[in-house]
Amino acid sequence: MRALWTLVKFLLLLAIAGVGALFALENSQQVNIDFVLFQSTALSLGLWLMIFLAIGTLLGLLASSLLIAYYRRKLARLTKQD
To answer: Domain limits of the chain?
Structure first.
């Protein structure tokens, strides 16, 4: 069962990577991004979108992990009091 689950995860990761590659290839227009303090180099639109998707995902995971850690500490404190 574990080998099947690993295979499913691998195939899902491969499919996501394939869709991401196709997305980046279809959006090949070169764009510059103007940030507040500096201007970026020209990269394809698909690559910029993938970068911002990855950054947003990581920030979301960080925010949720901080919230989970807070509630775990709170739960540990409450169970220690009993």
So the answer is: 2-81
